[in-house]
UniProtKB/TrEMBL annotation:
Subunit structure, as described in the record: Homodimer.
UniProt protein name: 5'-deoxynucleotidase
Keyword annotations from UniProtKB, A to Z: Hydrolase, Metal-binding
GO cellular component, one term: cytoplasm
Amino acid sequence: MPDDDQHAKGSVSYLMEMGALKRGKRSGWWIAGVKDPETIAEHSFRVAVVGAVLAMMEGADPAKVALLCTFHDTQETRVGDIPWIGRRYLTAAKNEDVTRDQLAEAHPAVAAGIQAVVEEYEHGDSLEVLVAHDADKLECMIQGLEYLEQGYSNAREWVDSTRAKLKTASAIELANAAQNMSSVDWQRTYLR
């Protein structure tokens, strides 16, 4: 039983560590001048939703894509959110290595399951992985559009650069639609 107790504590430790994602800010937006950028958890939540929507449009497995998206930035509790400019000067540990350390004391099934998700996101070539990567970029683009609305004109570079990296037809279609909408358009039909 001591192993079960230790694995339970290790698994809960991982869950508590994931709570730090609710406090960690996305650092790239600071470079764009955003004073109070979204948290890593806020980003990851919408990436998972965007991923499920894109998966439905692309004929991929929405649950699998949402799972890939949910765990795509969990390593940032330990290495932080290194902005693209910072990656030119820093070499961070591989996400799959960080995940292995995060889960070292967790229940073996939990460790193996999450490790497999992260490995697939980092190295897979399935439609689900492609869609998950597009979801990450599309969410960043949409967030940038929201920051543009708030007056952060430097967000334009993030909008344009992430939009240019989209690969699936559905992500490009949604990006085109987002370019001509405001962040409150969703409620307009109910205000009439």
